[in-house]
Amino acid sequence: MGLDVSVADPRRAAGELLIAVLEQGRTLDDALASVARFETLTGPDRGFARAMASAVLRHVGRLDAGLAPFLDRPLAEAPASVRALLRLGAAQSWLLDTPDHAVVGASVETAKAWPAARRAAGFINAVLRKVVADRDAFDASPVHAVWPDWLWQDFSSGLGAQAALDLAAAQTVAPTLHLTPANGDAVALATALGGRVIGAGSVELPLQPVEQLGGYEDGHWWVQDAAAALPAQLVAFTPGQSVLDVCAAPGGKTLQLAARGANCVALDRSKPRLRRLRENLARTGFDHVDIVSADATAWSPDTLFDHVLLDAPCSALGTLRRHPEGAWIKAESDVARFRDIQDRLLEAATRLVRPGGTIVYCVCSPRPQEGVDRVEAALAAGALARIPVTADEVGAFAGHVTGAGDVLTLPGAGFGHDAFYIARLTRI
Q1: Residues 6 or more apart in contact with residue 201 via CB below 8 angstroms
Q2: What is the dihedral of CA 211, 362, 328, 339, to 10 degrees?
Q3: Catalytic residue among 247, 264, 362, 364
């Protein structure tokens, strides 16, 4: 039987998005691209469904705490469709300023039309009537309740309570769009698109479909978080020197290196991700990049490189402001597994760079276990030394240079950005 879309229902579409993410462990981007009911929506309905699902994922732990006093059993025991509609109703009332009658009435109508939730329509009605009348438990829940307890403990023990709270607060703010200009002229790009210059040469705009912005098809810029743009900027190569970008796909950092004229090799073991890198290179016109599909830990080039940029696989917990579902679709065991591959890739980078050459190591995670601890372990092996980053190299991130000379982009630069750890090393 085909999908019944006789009546566009953004609430049911949002509910199915939440089920795909929170019950099936898919990312929101994957769900947005594959949930059929969401794909049928257009215009304001499509935008509303996405806004509701995003609001829930950004605040899910606090929403559950706010709902708890109105339930006689744990929310986890309710059917997935009912959990989704209750969370969506609470998000509409407490976060999106949806009128009370729409929160209750429209949610109940959605339940009645959704076979999986139909029998609970009366229950949903009763709970949401309490939701629109009382938000005290939601307001009283701590900001770190946006995460599972294990993640709060991990961040607060590794970074300190205040830094962890700042990260949690940053997650509650919807992200903006960050662009990197191909020609390096952030001022001109900001002027052309009506944005502002941030970071160390990025441009910030309100979140919007990138394909509709001027210069996209011509490859004049690409989407890249301002913090993610820093590692490639810290690769200080001179004309004629070679740069290896390890774990390069989908290619933001490769594009930066190519735009600066690097003699660049982009290496990644994932052929599907390399296809995206090739598409990005084609759109921007950077055809002088060599692409290698290989495992860096086993690959041997003919000659060593002058510089290596290693954006290592990691938990990606520094990107929760853009992908808040990551806190709920990853388990503590998932986060702990990256240490081995990070160590092995740092060993490979050391082998692939010439003596006197540099390695820029980075992860989109603020966790010491994936960042500074890995670098200190590599330094202890004796083949590497640290090249401290200076404040004047990182623009608005000057206050994020650590005492050791690394960079940790925790909140506080005056704009929203991801949390990256970056270290610059040299082979002795």
Answers
A1: 180, 181, 184, 186, 229, 233, 395
A2: 140
A3: 364
Those residues whose C-beta lies under 8 Å from the C-beta of residue 368, and which sit 6 or more positions away, are: 158, 159
Q: At what angle do helices 80-94 and 43-67 cross, to 10 degrees?
A: 100
The closest of 58, 279, 17 to 173, measured between CA atoms, is 58
**Cα(214)–Cα(192) distance, integer angstroms:** 8
Which residue ranges does the chain devote to CATH 1.10.940.10?
10-141
CATH number of 10-141: 1.10.940.10
pTM surpassing 0.85? Answer: yes
Where along the chain do the CATH 3.40.50.150 domains lie?
225-427
- CA 323/CA 27 separation, integer angstroms: 8
Mark residue 420 as left, alpha or beta (left: phi above 0; alpha: psi -120 to 50; beta: remaining): beta
Is residue 364 part of the annotated active site? The answer reads yes
In this predicted model, what pLDDT tens digit does every residue of 324-362 receive, in sequence order? 999 999 999 999 999 999 999 999 999 999 999 999 999
Each residue's pLDDT tens digit, 204-221: 999 998 988 999 999 999
Exposure class string for 231-253: b at 16+ Cβ within 10 A, else e = bbbbbebeeebbbbbbbbbbbbb
- How far from each other are the two terminal CA atoms of the chain, in whole angstroms? 66
Contact 273, 247 (CB under 8 A): no
Place domain 225-427 in its CATH homologous superfamily: Vaccinia Virus protein VP39 (3.40.50.150)
Please name the helix (run of DSSP H) or strand (run of DSSP E) that holds residue 385, with its range, or none. Answer: strand 384-386
* Chain-centre distance for alpha carbon 46: 22
Which amino acid type is present at position 135?
R
Q: Which of 403, 227, 195, 202 is nearest to 311 (CA)?
A: 227
To which H or E segment does residue 86 belong?
Answer: helix 80-94
Looking at residue 4, what is its pLDDT? 52
Angle at which helices 252-259 and 271-284 cross, to 10°: 40
Q: Left if phi > 0, otherwise alpha if psi is -120 to 50, otherwise beta: which for 215?
A: left
SS3 382: coil
